[in-house]
DNA sequence: CTCTGTGAAGTTGTTCACAGCC
DNA sequence: GGCTGTGAACAACTTCACAGAG
């Protein structure tokens, strides 16, 4: 149900690397490894062990080593991993070595919040434009990003390569907006609308649904009766 | 790395049901089934087949049937599933039959956007309170929800059972806020801060990280060179 | 002795294919 | 005929446990 694979169908052997297959579960964890590595780097910690990384993200050392081993051999036995080097390798693997261009459609509250989110820029994602169908919003700037009308999308994006289209419109507009983004040449979709959308084969897609996450939490709460009286001791 | 299991450790056989084990991947898909069922219900469609549900969420019919079969036998052979009944069963299974109480910590832009998100209420989640450490925000109301100071948390929540604490504070405050929520008796955590947090055993936890999702998309774009010239035909 | 990298074992999840009921 | 429910086959992922490098 999640992202389409995004792999070009018949590219068995690229010239880039040996590139054995990397499980998608592994790909999903790499951004989290990267996040703790950035923190370690800020603290000027030059080396880290798989055990330490595991502790920080709540996993286990074998998992960390296995995940990293799918990408290459970056550690030193008896020593650990060089933090800046590992950051470099992960960034390279994830394709975030150069600035990625993104656009956002739907300048409502969530859209505005995201436009103001500093994490985009910090992580190498550059907001090129925003789109909405509300004439009051069109022509304004939100967090420094110009808002265009949705009908202008193809024109505005004519000369730009957009890597990711972020969709923050109401459910009933989501599929239309996704279709427009694809038509305008946008290469992948991040959908926040609480509605499944379909994309053509080969277009990577991810969905973030807050309500779904909360329902999953709700499930885990079943069976635990009511308010905890004596909170469990905090670890750490 | 994701949510703690949330299962009370030694409760092999509850009296509630036969309750065979439901894979967590299945639990993760149920909210999406529910979402398309709500849509079908709004269109007054009384019956649906596993094939149709699968099409709508981009899965396959065997997966849908298998998932549903972990919970019970809700379909009729040769006919399909009764939409309202299946909704009822899924809601029951997910524990969203009664209102869930939630609080939010961090009334910044993202927090404000979430407080205004109508999906909470529509899906049976009731915002009881919000917290921030900014004196300018304390005492105001955002989207009808009163903002308290973080130090007041234990007091404010003394008599309430809070099911989910939503964390939308900056990274460096995330662990502190989570610890406070746990101390105040909050039963589970939904973390939006781009920082792993740890919780005691038995406290369900989920994380939503936008940057991570975008990095995963970025990975899938690697290898596809540049702007698509001729967009693939839209399906549907 | 420490910590990585990795086959092999073990576990979990998905797909197949068909019996069973409408 | 149509569609569910489900063992059994298959595939993916995780954990173990240890060889090998520093």
Which structural class should the secondary elements of chain A be placed in?
A: alpha/beta
Major sheet attributes of chain A: 7 strands, mixed
- Residue share in helix of chain A: 25-40%
First-last Cα distance of chain A: 36 Å
Order of helices and strands of chain A: HEHHEEHEHHEEEHEHEEH
Strand neighbour order, sheet with most strands of chain A: 6-7-5-4-8-9-10
Portion in strands of chain A: 15-25%
Summed up, the helix count of chain A is: 9
What shape does the CA trace of chain A take? globular
How many individual β-strands of chain A?
A: 10
Mean pLDDT of chain A: 89
Radius of gyration of chain A: 21 Å
**Low-confidence spans of chain A: pLDDT under 50, at least 5 residues?**
1-18
Largest interface: A-B, 89 and 89 residues
Assembly category: homodimer
């Amino acid at each position: 149900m999640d992202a389409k694979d995004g792999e070009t169908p018949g590219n068995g052997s690229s010239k880039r690397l040996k590139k054995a297959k990397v499980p998608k579960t592994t790909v999903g964890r790499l951004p989290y490894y990267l996040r703790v590595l950035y923190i370690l780097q800020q603290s000027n910690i030059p080396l880290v062990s798989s055990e330490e990384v595991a502790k920080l993200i709540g996993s286990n050392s074998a998992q960390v080593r296995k995940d990293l081993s799918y990408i290459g051999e970056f550690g030193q036995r008896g020593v650990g991993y060089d933090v800046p080097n590992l950051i470099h390798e992960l960034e390279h693997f994830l394709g975030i070595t150069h600035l990625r261009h993104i656009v956002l459609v739907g300048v409502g509250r969530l859209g505005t919040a995201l436009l103001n989110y500093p994490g985009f820029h910090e992580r190498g994602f550059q907001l090129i434009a925003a789109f909405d169908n509300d004439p009051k919003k069109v022509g304004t700037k939100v967090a420094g990003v110009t808002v265009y009308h949705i009908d202008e999308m193809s024109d505005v994006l004519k000369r730009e390569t957009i890597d990711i289209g972020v969709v923050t419109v109401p459910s009933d507009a989501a599929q239309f907006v996704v279709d427009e983004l694809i038509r305008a040449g946008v290469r992948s979709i991040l959908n926040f609308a609480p509605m499944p959308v379909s994309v053509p084969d080969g277009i990577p897609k991810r969905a973030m649904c807050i309500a779904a996450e909360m329902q999953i939490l709700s499930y885990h709460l079943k069976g635990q009766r009511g308010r905890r009286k004596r909170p469990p001791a905090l670890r750490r």
